[in-house]
Amino acid sequence: MSPPVNPVTSNEKLPTTVDVVVVGGGIIGCLSAYYLALKRLSVAVIEKGYIACEQSSRNWGWCRQTGRDRRELPLIRESLMLWAGLNEAVGGDTGFRRTGLLYVTKDAGVLARWEEWLKTARDYQIPTRILNGEAARALMPGCEQVWAGGLYTANDGRAEPAMATPVIAEAARRLGATLHQSCAARGLETEAGAVSAVVTEKGTVRTRAVLCAAGGWSSLLCRRHDIELPQLNVRASVLSTEPAAHVADNPISTPGFGVRRRLDGGYTVGLRGHATLDLIPDAFRYIRAFWPGYVQERENITVKLSAAFFEALLRPSHWPLDEVSPFERTRVLDPVPDQAVLDLALANLKAAYPILRDVKVAERWAGMIDITPDAVPVISPVETLPGFYLATGFSGHGFGIAPAAARLAADLITGDSPLLDPSPFRYSRMIDGTRLVPETGL
Ligand SMILES: Cc1cc2nc3c(=O)[nH]c(=O)nc-3n(C[C@H](O)[C@H](O)[C@H](O)COP(=O)(O)OP(=O)(O)OC[C@H]3O[C@@H](n4cnc5c(N)ncnc54)[C@H](O)[C@@H]3O)c2cc1C
């Protein structure tokens, strides 16, 4: 079941030529279009479903530095500065609020690990603090559980997935970008070895630059053009509640549930570290790249053989551009939520907060998180195909880091001095034998 998202209308006419085609109308694609349009480039956003129909409307809405991989800390630090001015810049409410963000634990061993992460935070001037149990509980009014301690970052925040991408898309349009929904990009055309056009189901757009911001579909689009991109999708489940008693503005992560208050007065609830990897042929294709990360993270990932294996097996990796592509066959990736995980998260939330005992569930859904072997995105040109750029593989962190990631992608396309060092996000690390491992999380 899809979560609600504010609707956006499409532009009527597909342009024949633009400076940049952005494939994917998620938060990364729409923000990249916005920054490219700010640089006065003509841009078309091509979306197979509707704006924010996949991960960008299904996520928890946390904008978090806390516990981030060292390689992503510059991105999230810049992003939080950009988020702070984004409502004004885009002329609408993304839902961003700087609320602080809290992790709590009952385990002294976990607290010791958090102490270690504080050193990283200090290196990047991030004001994260360890709290004792009492101080942590003071940030959780109504919570009747006792904690060993907490990890708190006062300048982290949250935003509203249902609102953010649509207002950003509209802002890009006001700057001249066009938005095309129910319009799959089937593939690219090339001339003299460089990108020359994008073929969509509604026609061809000539261009010298394409940004692939296609989330969990990026690897398939790349394979169509013989570009290897090791990427897998893991399924994560979420529920939303009806408006309920106010307990905290800051998102809270506990071992038994994660919770964020929304602007409509309800809560978005999930359970950290409970993702499912549906075994598909890509899992075998990329097993070497993902194995070190899998070994490290296996407690958090359930591997399942399901119908998804056979669906993926039947999906072609090459198709003629004048025929229906796999992208049109799945307009919106809308996986089935794991009800047992959601029931557990809700029961844990109610046990911790008696004041929420009668809270009513509004919706349940799941989303496919696109992961890379080192859980760090690829924001990069692809050297073997001039004019082709990637901004993908956000590995469950792409909502919070979207503003700086998209600015960086726009800088790389225009050749402007990049907002920050792009080398940790280079595509070449995926294929040059670099050992790809995620940093151990919190
Ligand atoms: C349950 C869940 C919880 C999460 N929680 C958080 C969180 O709290 N904080 C955080 O920072 N991140 C979180 N994330 C991750 C975050 O949502 C993603 O990293 C981010 O939204 C990625 O944005 P995107 O634009 O790259 O991808 P998407 O939002 O998936 O957008 C890609 C778009 O491309 C379109 N597309 C694909 N192929 C084609 C094609 N060929 N032609 C046209 N269109 C195409 C798709 O339809 C899709 O709309 C979470 C994700 C999930 C699923």
Explained architecture:
The structure is a single chain. By secondary structure, the chain is α/β, with parallel strands linked by helices. The chain contains 13 helices and 21 strands. It has an 8-stranded mixed beta sheet, sandwiched between helices. Strands 8-2-1-12-21-20 form a 6-stranded mixed beta sheet, with helices on one face. Helix 1 (27-38) runs parallel beside helix 6 (161-174), helix 1 (27-38) crosses helix 13 and helix 3 (73-90) crosses helix 13 (402-414). The longest helix has 18 residues, at 73-90. The protein is globular, with a radius of gyration of 21 Å. 51% of the residues are buried. The mean pLDDT is 96. Residues 23-29, 46-49, 53-56, 58-62, 184-185, 213-217, 221, 236, 238, 327, 367, 369, 392, 394, 396-400 line the site of flavin-adenine dinucleotide.
